[in-house]
Structures are given as structure tokens and as C-alpha cells.
Design goal:
elongated, about 140 residues, single chain, about 5% strand, two-stranded antiparallel ribbon, 5 helices, about 45% helix, mainly alpha
Length: about 140
């Protein structure tokens, strides 16, 4: 339910590449161009793209004249696949503190929180980056290589 900032940044970077894929699948953008289009720090995006490249979700080359693009169709990459590269699954959030639910009597919000977490996991597992290819890109595509 609560996800790390790096996961959010990775999804933002991937969403930009998904938009690009819909318009020009072979076009690449630099880490700086991706970062600027999503208002993210360039060094963080560069690190994220390296991890995504090693995992086979993006392809490209770093450095001057380099760029990145999706390695596969956006419809074949789920949000969860990207998120798990940057964070580990955490135990259920309990307002009584860690380790309460499951070891003690469940807290008053246990069932509600468990249901929300289940729905969030279903959303992340079913939602692909194809969700970002509908309509016009959020930021005009410039600098396409």
C-alpha cells in the first residue's frame, strides 16, 4: 500500500517511455529528457534506467548520444513487475504497530486494511503500462533519436 519513492519514480519514467512507444516505438530518450518530462532528478532516473535495463524492461545506451526505450510492448509490463525491482514486499500495515495483527487479536481496522491491500495488489498486477499509451503524450515528445 505504501510504496517507496524510487518505485514511484520508476513508474513515472516507464510511463514516459510507454507514451513514446505508442507514438514512435524505436525512438529513444536520454535519462535527462525522461527526468525533465516527469520533473524527476536526472541522477535518480539514470540509476532507475540502469536497473530497468538489467531487468530487460528497457533497452538503450547511456552517455552522450545515448537513450532509452521500452524493450517490450507496454501491454507486457505490469506496474508490479517494475515496483518489485525497487522494493520488497512489506508486511501488512497495522495501526497498532508492526507484528500486532496475526500475533495478537486483529486490530479494529484489520479487515478494512487487508481488503485495501488486496485491491491494491490486484490493481498493480493487472495494470500494464499500456494504460499510458492512450491519447496524446502528457508532454510533447522532442529530442527523439
Amino acid at each position: 500500500m505504501i510504496h517507496q519513492k524510487t518505485s514511484q519514480n520508476a513508474i513515472a519514467a516507464m510511463s514516459r517511455l510507454a507514451e513514446l512507444y505508442a507514438v514512435r516505438p524505436t525512438c529513444t530518450l536520454s535519462s535527462r529528457e525522461i527526468a525533465e518530462s516527469r520533473n524527476l532528478p536526472t541522477p535518480i532516473v539514470a540509476k532507475i534506467l540502469t536497473i530497468l535495463s538489467r531487468a530487460g524492461y528497457v533497452t538503450g545506451s547511456p552517455g552522450p548520444g545515448g537513450g532509452y526505450r521500452l524493450a517490450k510492448k507496454p501491454s507486457l509490463i505490469t506496474l508490479k513487475e517494475v515496483m518489485i525491482l525497487f522494493e520488497r514486499e512489506s508486511e501488512s500495515m497495522c495501526p497498532f504497530g508492526p507484528g500486532w495483527c496475526g500475533n495478537q487479536e486483529p486490530c479494529p481496522l484489520h479487515e478494512t486494511i487487508a481488503d485495501m491491500e488486496k485491491r491494491a495488489q490486484k490493481f498493480l498486477t493487472k495494470t500494464t503500462f499500456a494504460a499510458f499509451v492512450k491519447g496524446e503524450p502528457s508532454v510533447p515528445i522532442t529530442g527523439c533519436k
